[in-house]
Amino acid sequence: MSRLNIVLGVGGGIAAYKSALLLRLFTEAGHDVTVIPTDASTKFVGVATWEALSGHPATNSVFDAVDTVNHVRLGHEADLIVVAPATADLLAKAAGGHANDLLTTTLLMARGPVLFAPAMHTEMWQHGATVANVATLRARGVHVMDPAVGRLTGPDSGPGRLPEPADIFAAATALFKQPEPALASESWGSETLGSEPATAEPAVQPAGETSGILAGKRVLITAGGTREPLDPVRFLGNKSSGKQGVALVEAALAAGADVTLIHAPMDVPAPAGAKLQPIETALELRAATLAAAATADVVIMAAAVADFRPANISTGKIKKRDNTDDPVITLVRNPDILLELVAHRAAQNQQQFIVGFAAETGDEQADARTYAQAKLQRKGCDLLVVNEVGPGDSGSERVFGQDTNQVEILALDGAEPVQTGGSKREVANAVVHLIAQRLGGR
């Protein structure tokens, strides 16, 4: 990415201190940053900090540097404007087109992308006025991240925390990523799941980017790997990085969909533009997914959900002592979320399209494809995207944590399996294309 001219607006919230870390990320990446702190924000972080870290004067007055016409120039010259923290007041001013200081006038003059990273108490974020202001901004093409969920100022917790600086940095720089290459049309060949040759099975068609093909559709995507706590410091987890789920979100957004991402912990940041709901455990994922699916046209279950959880969670750290026996951990089954979604669709007579993901391995009884076909019939989802996981030829992981993927997409209606491989974005494009084709057929 080339050097960018960035304006960093800082709102008047306690989270303003985190924006100093965000500023450092931008400058260390080689970008030129001008900070515009609101008057209230200087009660939390002083002007001297912003000037020292950015190398530029930091002011919110339209009467400073009048000879350069700052209130016009900064917005025109900025490749990107990031506001972090974006308070409820700043969101309201931006939605209403206010222009009573340098930051709000700069936002009105913006010619490049604008990204807001909100931070406020939960009640403020969920208030109807803020909800309406965010919807107004997003409708204008402004990028508004959802706040993180966790401990807020004071004893309360909930949605309203400023996203971590690294997540804001990733969301900002993602606005300048180059488009992914078009999807190749080759099939897997000898890499196909199971032992059967793939020569008779079709590759994904059509290939390429997904612009507009899901316009107006509400798409719910789950991603990441759930964590089941054993004690306050340990958990049962899996190797999912969340990369494929994030790629699906990006492809669905490019397709024009209204996207909600419910995500367990991931190794990659969530993309800007989707409604975000972070969770940890399988039970939390179940509750969030069943609630959000009620209004979704398409549900894509890409999260790696733990099949089991500890029957009991220790309130204290499980100690390793020489004079005690090794602990025995009893596991209980987690609910089958995909199965519940399909059953609920049938009960409500919904015209909802459901896509499942399956990480499979073969054993002495059957190969991965056989297990996947049986899972598809048992689950009853419309499509099942199947990975054969485990070590590859070189000994490295074949799927988890990698930037590439190879999948076979099975259809409940008996259509020929579809294979595709390449970058995880290419695989995501293929899945989105197939969903759009099926929805068109309906």
Structural summary, described in words:
- With 442 residues, the protein is of the alpha/beta class.
- The protein has two domains: 5-174, Rossmann fold (3-Layer(aba) Sandwich); 189-441, Rossmann fold (3-Layer(aba) Sandwich), CATH 3.40.50.
- The protein is built from 13 helices and 19 strands.
- It has helices spanning 16-28, 47-54, 70-77, 88-96, 102-109, 122-126, 128-139, 165-174, 243-254, 282-292, 337-348, 368-379, 424-441; strands at 5-10, 32-37, 80-86, 114-118, 143-144, 148-151, 157-161, 218-223, 228-229, 235-236, 258-263, 275-278, 298-301, 308-310, 331-333, 353-360, 383-388, 404-411, 418-423.
- The strands form five sheets. The protein has an eight-stranded mixed beta sheet with strand order 12-11-8-13-16-17-18-19, sandwiched between helices.
- Catalyzes two sequential steps in the biosynthesis of coenzyme A. In the first step cysteine is conjugated to 4'-phosphopantothenate to form 4-phosphopantothenoylcysteine. In the second step the latter compound is decarboxylated to form 4'-phosphopantotheine.
- Its cofactor is FMN; Mg(2+).
- Residues 214-437 form the DNA/pantothenate metabolism flavoprotein C-terminal domain.
